[in-house]
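In response to a reviewer's request, we include the raw inputs and outputs for one of the modeled complexes. The two entities were modeled together in a single run.
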Amino acid sequence: MKLHYSRNNLKGKEKKLQRALEILPGAISWTILIGALLLTFWKPVWAAVLVISFDLYWLLRLLYMTFFLVLSYLRLSMENQTDWMERVRGLENVEQYLQEPRPLSPKARFRQKLSHWTHLQELQALTQNGSLPPRWSDIRHVVIIPIAKESRNVFEPGIRSLAHQQFPPKQILVVLAVEDRTPMEIKKAAQAVQQQYRSLFLDFLVASHPDGLPGEARVKGANATCAGKEAARYLERQGVPFEKVIVSCFDADTVVSPHYFACVTYQFMVCPQRTRASFQPIPVYHNNIWKVPGFARVLDVGSSFFQLVEATNPEKLVTFSSHSMSFQALVEIGYWPVDMISDDSAIFWKAFLHYEGDYRVVPMYVTVSMDVAASDSWRKTVVNVYRQKRRWAWGVENFPIVMRGFLHAQKLPLSKKIKNGFKLFESNVAWATWPFLLGVISWLPAFFAGLEFSNSVLYYTAPRITATIFRLGSISLLTTIALSMSILPKAPTRNPLLKKIGHAFEWLLVPVTAIFLSAIPALDAQTRLMLGRYMEFWVTDKKR
Amino acid sequence: MLLIRKFLFYVFVVIYLISWPLAVLYALGYVVHPAMPRGFVKTGLIYLSTTPPGASVYLGNSRYTKRTPTMLSGLLPGEYWLKVILKNHDPWIRKVAVEPEKALALERILLLPRNPRFEGLLAGRFEDLVPIPGTRFLLLTTGSSLEDFLVYDWKARVSRPLLPPTSDFQTGRVLSYTTVKESPLVLFRIKLRGDEKTIAVDLSREKANGIDLSFLFPEDLAWVEWDPRNSHRLFAFRHGEIHRVDLNTMTFAPRIAENVLGLGVHEKRLYLFTRDHLFQRVDSDGKHPEIFFKNPPAIASVFEESNPFFQIKILAEDLVLFLGDRGELLVNRFPYLFVEHGTRGFEFVPARRRLLLWRSDAVGVLDLANPRETDAVSEHPPKVRWVYTQGRDIRQAFLVYKGSHALFRDGAAIHLVELEAPGEPAVHRLLTVSPRTSVLYSEESGRMYYLDRETDELVSMEILPLEWLPLLSAE
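The model returned the following structure tokens for the whole complex.
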């Protein structure tokens, strides 16, 4: 399906529809918050009943998500020992490999046995589908790293991690996508890094993205698109078919695990419709996790956990941050949107609409590590984190475009439209409203009770029921704390255990950070979209 | 994973569909009752909190394992005998009515000890006790001259003579005195060597000689009032005129306002009711008048018909009280005139918007709810609830325990009455004090200060148990 995946250059009804849909998420979020607030004053009984209904829904959803967080975490730790490269090599001849799979050692742990069983399931599905994978030695990777103002010490560790892959780096084409407006010393640093590492890879390009191209905004997607086109020209010159190329677009600070490209190659090979798929790793923020204030640490561990939960639901999984995808799909859909900030999720929706729903995200249980948005001082870090979360929440800009796409997509089943549309809408509204509803508005009916309400049974029972629900919710918090302590790397201090115990207490900040550094930035983003005050891309400060 | 997800999703949906109505119905007071036609019944609830806490609760024939503070929920509508028992305290027994979907909140049950705690504070045979409410001081007298006056600081538990021995006013015979709540300044009208004088003494200053204001107050004034936060500016009323005395500059500003029927001082401003029925506030120079509110005709008519002077008290931002010389009590709330005559005094708790008032024969309570709950068009306007009507000579009353109880002196007898308990207010006679002397109750210390009937010594009695006071202040 051909859709102009942009809010710009629309005409007539399409423009009005776009504007109406831009208003919707913010309007609904504000209506929920103001409506709930007014209800506590005017109809406290209704408000109290709604609060109980909502709190109960929240508890069940929390427990449901916690269950899948644990499962996903177990899967991540289960695949931690997996030799992806061995599996990739085994896929050279799938039928033979299936008949004589390398037996597991009798001493293999339960996790390894489970991973092996999953592997066999995937192979069987592949053979039944009949879509045999290409030879791994024919597969090429393109890694695009857009740079705007990040210094060498921010992007070089990521390039070093590419050179230390299990998958042969000689099959990886690295493209440093540098903005024309980037300061000269960073441009020079990019060239120096190119010279230093070029011999380790298939090739190492430094693509320069001119400023102010028609139809483009100053966004990362425009830079990545320019680099993607340069890579396409390179691959064409080399005679590499696009269907055998996987492209990864990484933030400048992304450091991938040594298994990453072996894992993504494996997932690409076993994916029946591999040219209609993106591959989503688990983002973690370990590069500087112990150097940032506790509230920032908790927020970003929370983000990783959210992605872990999302990974268990591939039907509705959307790409986020650094990830990989079929290069052929990227070229067919016309690369990244060049006028949108949220390029990471926009690229999925663009592909989903282009292929009328025949596009998926494959979760990968391998991590990519990035920086927590930090700065020189505590105060500046708060501002940085706030701006970063607002930029993430600006992903709501996809909603009106996706909805327009759904209206035009004839082949896309209605059920998929409803499921995906509702999820996109509900997740954004929940992001902006839930922390307020849970942390503030839930308790207001008791505070602002009039005489009539304060003499009712509900006045006394509602706070107790809410408190009981919150106590049950602490099961989820304790689980999260335990997983968080387990997933974090060792703290570079004299007493890392003490540091981790301290981190456990940092989770008590969640009610405050959820409001000030999650809900308010989301509400801010939605309000800007609602009022037509569109955001410009703001490069997060990354300090090391 | 997808299968597990779908399965669990439906399990959670079912859990929600079952638990949601149960939780909401429980919250609203419904409980399952198979004997009832619909299988459930609307219930009520009692919330109990006592001081001291930890009392056992009996409802009807059932004893509850939880101790106070506690909530008895799921109660079938009807009348119950409620009994609260704590060791070494008088049992608290009331008949309570439980209504469907309603909560009966008994949040401040004060359990009286069988053996109250008394403490002798100051030996000596005192004739009178002059309370200075809202301060840490009280005055004790052994005679009628200023040299017979002692200042007692009940916080520091120390006493000292009112004036140093070198003071010129030591021998002055006290004719009258004026105090203002929360102000340590006392104005004495004395007779010294044949002349009448007005002396100001600041109790918060040790060795204060007293300031002679006689040249500023050439004759006795009908009424003197000041703002406790600005005690150096006194406002005197005489013949419909307001005069100002400045203690810092020792100056007298005559007639800063005229044609005045009522005067109040609040937060450095004067509140005046004038003969032309304007209720206005002016600054301390009598300038910059602002109409405070348009006076309802009902208030104007009372002013017209009655005597020439009213005290004005600003109880809250939206609440103004008028107290006339004959004891007429008005509030700017419909129906305005709450007591026609005989009001001797009042106390107000802003947090509860509760006004305690008393006449010689009765103690009453007026609950002045927020305007959004009760206003001029309300079908149930506020009215005085007389909680004690057997009085003979009620001279003082105090609100106790955040306004949930009232302590009052009827002659020499001290009584405590519950203001919030269900049914007829229970009145407890606590003790008899030295006749014709005043008492002082301080919520801050939870104690009543009085002169012992037998010995005339200063004694205090614990009304609120001291160990629970931090809990009280946190409420």
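As requested, we also summarize the result in words. The CA atoms of residues 428 and 539 of chain A lie 22 Å apart. The first strand of chain A starts at residue 140 and ends at 147.
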